[in-house]
TrEMBL record, chain A:
It is found in: Cell membrane. The chain crosses the membrane at residues 26-46, 66-86, 98-121, 133-157, 164-185, 218-239, 251-267, 313-336. This is Permease. The keyword Nucleus does not apply. The keyword Secreted does not apply. Its main location: membrane. Belongs to the UPF0718 family. It is a multi-pass membrane protein. It comes from Streptomyces djakartensis. It holds the Pfam family ArsP_1. InterPro entries: DUF318, UPF0718.
Automatic annotation (TrEMBL), chain B:
It comes from the Bacteria. Residues 97-120 are annotated as: Disordered. This is Membrane protein. The keyword Transmembrane applies. Pfam families: DUF1980_C (PF21537). It comes from Streptomyces djakartensis. The keyword Transmembrane applies.
């Protein structure tokens, strides 16, 4: 075998000088032919490793689970953009932004689904003239206070209705607080200008506008959803389970720890109550914090917000929301639980 | 991203979802059965969007629209192609081994309402029911009975027997929780094999309290087919 390979460069040369000689860079070419196969083989072998398979399953599963809700959110945002005149919102919401904030927060009850749906909707609301503070209150409260999520919470904590009440109140309070905080400290220039949500233009077909906005928002948000899903799957597979029990004993550390866990694991808001209930070694206040922080801030949402509103905004907003949400859960949890 | 690529991406995503939810039941590896209608509708919507985009790009050739989606949209090809050509399997022993068993603690707080066990022998039972019988049933009805359970194999890291396991989902595979019953008396089958085990409670601790070991002395282990919905605590089929 080796003999023929060594001799072969000369052998054809003897028959037909020059013409059939091996190409000058034949080792390179050989490498180019063999390497991709080798890499594919190694990646394939590595891809079958249990940890990597679990990672792929979790990442795909987070994406598949979120796509219907993301479609709902982007379709709604496309429809708001194309069909709803801006005057509707100015009529529905109180004139003063400080009053519009709690109203918009309470309106979150009507958007069933998980948090992925609310980001594009909030963005199109801002595009249609709703005060950003009110849109953010809606963005934060919608995933946490809708009937599906509250029902799931009641099922996960049987015989403890105070948990449902605490979740509802703490989420509404945190959402409204963030809205007011934006009125007080927020700056418009942190927000990336919404290019797409210009509303209906005379002379264009509303349906074409709806389709265009829907498609653009979905591709846009979908890409960031995949980023978030990959990050969540990485943490899901990488966080060793023994860590879970470590901080259960200290009241303050356990609250902070479950808040961090909620951000990293990015469990969807319809299911996080079951996960919280299963963390039974932790205090009720810490469990409540997990359920209040999770729908408002997590790696998936940070990725979606970065894509929609820009990085400057997402970093500040997520950091502030985390602090406010923890404070509200501690307050409400301290009173009710 | 050019318009034909956007159309292709939408069509592939739609086909991927339909492939997983309408033509096969592959979606059961990732989400709960109740998601099926939502996934089918989403697949159809994405397919329609993609075809509409292709049609409109074909008709209005050369007139490119102003706001192409960002580069990050390319990442959507990953789940689409993965669903179509390289779908990962359902979670198994790797995930179960990493988790402390805990799914039963949240259910059935009231422990006095246990019905009498059926008279058949062996008694077909779910892993969750077995755990509750062992830990909460003060009447100790499970003692001396022969039971039969189905689950997959998770090796125990301390080498003392192995675990018969089920994983349960609340929403998607990111929140899987495990149910485990330790099995004594037979050699460990290959990890992730689905088996039906017949045996009786392995004495350890006080039956009917939290100190009782959730464990089984196995008499017979039989390989079975993986159920299509593996994230469910179901009775053995035979």
């Amino acid at each position: 075998m080796q003999d023929t390979e060594e001799r072969s460069p000369e052998a054809p040369a003897a028959v037909e000088p020059g013409a059939r000689a091996w190409p000058r860079h034949w080792p390179l070419l050989l490498g180019a032919a063999v390497l991709p196969g080798l890499v594919l083989y190694l990646v394939g072998r590595w891809g079958e490793a249990p940890a990597l398979q679990a990672w792929r399953t979790v990442a795909l599963s987070v994406t598949v689970q979120a796509v219907p809700f993301l479609l709902l959110g982007t379709a709604l945002s496309g429809a708001i953009n194309a069909f709803v005149p801006a005057s509707v919102f100015t009529r529905l919401l109180p004139k003063r932004p400080a009053l519009a904030v709690p109203v918009a927060g309470a309106a979150g009850v009507v958007l069933p689904g998980c948090e992925c749906a609310s980001v594009p909707v909030a963005n199109s609301l801002i595009g249609r003239g709703v005060a950003p503070a009110a849109a953010f209150a809606f963005l934060l409260s919608a995933p946490a206070v809708n009937p599906i999520v509250l029902t799931a919470t009641a099922i996960a904590f049987p015989g403890r209705p105070e948990m449902v009440a605490a979740r509802l109140l703490a989420s509404l309070l945190a959402a409204a607080a963030m809205g007011w905080l934006w009125l007080w400290l927020g700056k418009e220039e942190w927000l990336r200008p919404a290019v797409r949500h210009t509303g209906h233009q005379p002379g264009h077909s509303r349906w074409a506008e709806f389709r265009g906005g829907f498609q653009h928002d979905f591709l846009h948000a979908g890409g960031f959803l995949v980023v978030g899903a990959l990050a969540a799957a990485t943490f899901n597979v990488a966080v060793p389970p023994s860590v879970l029990g470590t901080f259960a004993d200290s009241a303050w550390l356990s609250v902070l720890f479950l808040a961090a866990l909620a951000i990293l694991l990015a469990v969807c808001s319809e299911a996080d109550a079951f996960v919280a209930a299963s963390l039974s070694g932790f205090s009720p206040v810490a469990q409540l914090t997990f359920m209040v922080v999770g729908p408002m801030v997590d790696v998936k949402l940070i990725a979606l917000q970065t894509g929609t509103f820009g990085r400057t905004f997402a970093v500040r907003f997520s950091a502030a929301t985390t602090v406010v949400a923890i404070a509200c859960s501690a307050l409400i949890g301290g009173v009710l639980l | 991203m050019k318009r034909p690529v956007q159309a292709l991406l939408l069509v592939l995503s739609g086909l991927g979802l339909l492939q997983a939810s309408l033509f096969t039941d592959m979606f059961l590896r990732y989400v709960k059965p109740g998601m099926r209608p939502l996934l089918i509708v989403s697949g159809l919507v994405l397919l329609t969007l993609g075809l509409a985009e292709a049609w409109s790009a074909y008709r209005t050739a050369r007139r490119d629209e102003g706001h192409p989606p960002p580069h990050v949209a390319w990442l959507l090809f990953l789940p689409a192609l993965s669903l179509l050509f390289y779908a990962p399997p359902a979670l198994g022993s790797y995930t179960a081994a990493r988790e402390a068993p805990r799914a039963t603690q949240t259910r059935d707080a009231g422990d006095d309402d246990f019905e009498p066990l059926p008279a058949t022998s062996p008694v077909p039972i779910t892993l969750g029911d077995f755990t509750r019988r062992v830990r909460q049933d003060r009447t100790r009805a499970i003692e001396e009975r022969t039971v039969r359970m189905t689950g997959f194999v998770t090796p125990a890291d301390d080498g003392d027997g192995w675990y018969l396991t089920r994983l349960l989902l609340n929403c998607c595979a990111a929140d899987a929780q495990s149910l485990k019953v330790r099995v004594h008396g037979v050699a460990t089958p290959k990890a992730d094999t689905w088996v039906t085990v017949t045996g009786s409670w392995h004495p350890g601790g006080t039956l009917g309290t939290d100190s009782a070991e959730v464990a089984l002395d196995a008499r017979e282990v039989k390989k079975v087919q993986r159920p299509s919905n593996s994230y469910m605590d179901a009775l053995p089929l035979d």
